[in-house]
Amino acid sequence: MARVPASRYLAAMSEADPIIPVPKQRKPDWIRVKAPIGTAFSETKNLMRRLNLATVCEEAACPNIGECWTKKHATVMILGDTCTRACAFCNVKTGMPRAVDPLEPEHVAVAAAELGLSHIVITSVDRDDLPDGGASQFVKVINALRRNTPDTTIEILTPDFRNKAQAAVEAIVEARPDVYNHNLETVPRLYPTIRPGARYYASLRLLESVKRHDPTIFTKSGIMTGLGEQRLEVHQVMDDMRSADIDFLTMGQYLQPTPRHAKVEEFVSPQAFKAYGAIARAKGFLLVAASPLTRSSYHAGDDFEKMRAAREAKLGKAATAA
Fold it and tell me: The domain spanning residue 207 has which CATH number?
């Protein structure tokens, strides 16, 4: 991996303002969103109910659901709506999941066709109860989409498949999604309290292994801010991601979904997100999305096109230089 010129990194560092704390009693104006309304929103919701599909938009209480569903963009959450983990930030319910729905892959493909999606994001709950962690269901969904909506590009956001065979990830890579996303979520120091069922370096190795098996697949990862992380810790996570050859970094503000979840330690200002973005770009990411409302699948289709164009431009420059 090419080294980033020191002058470029220092220029980005000079833009970095300190994270600006805001009183935790109220959300700042920049994190407020409009309530979901409109016919398209209702149609998207009804389609998901008819096909018996869960969405991370609903289950994780995403603040962007109104905007995305009005545009008929929904992130499908496969393998049910019940997770075997209990992460302190996540609103998805925890418990004993139901059996895997064999019709789910075809239902996802029907949803993609009816919504007219040119790009679809597929995520899942953690399924530690399954021998492969649910990897085979990701493969079936990818294959169903390729059969039924061959022009739709596919982005997956998988769990870490912890303690599962490496073959689980390899099987998904062989199905060739266009983007493989797995979120690190936070800095290593906070894993014991925020993501206790996961391991930071295991997640990094997963993403690194995707690139090792198929360098043409875009890799993507994201972290939340406002959980008590320090700025230099975030910079180190960026460095770790680049060492794993991750293409795309997303950063957004953590919002406490219920009183029983981890508290918001601070609201990070849009100016601080802009500074983080400048530093990340200086470190060599192909694409960076950093703002209070950024989420993994927010504007994913547009970002995919930007990422593809950025890689083509990068390859073109390399060919010219050669």
Answer: 3.20.20.70
Instruction: Label residue 95 exposed, middle or buried (CB < 10 Å: 0-12, 13-18, 19+).
Output: exposed
118 touches 301 (CB < 8 A): yes
Note whether residue 92 is domain-resident.
yes
pTM attached to this predicted model: 0.89
Q: Note whether residue 268 is domain-resident.
A: yes
Domain span at 16:
6-321
Side-chain-side CA neighbours of 225 within 13 Å: the count stands at 31
Instruction: Please tell me the total count of domains within the chain.
Output: 1
Instruction: Per-residue pLDDT tens, the chain, 322 aa: give them.
Output: 544 554 454 455 444 444 444 444 578 888 777 666 678 888 888 888 999 998 888 877 777 777 787 777 888 999 999 999 999 999 999 999 999 999 999 999 999 999 999 999 999 999 999 999 999 999 999 999 999 999 999 999 999 998 887 888 999 999 999 999 999 999 999 999 999 999 999 999 999 999 999 999 999 999 999 999 999 999 999 999 999 999 999 999 999 999 999 999 999 999 999 999 999 999 999 999 999 999 988 889 999 999 999 999 988 888 888 7
For residue 317, tell me if it sits in a domain: yes
Residue 96 in tokens: 């004993």
Query: What is the signed CA dihedral for 247, 234, 192, 136, rounded to 10 degrees?
Result: -10
Q: Is residue 28 part of a domain?
A: yes
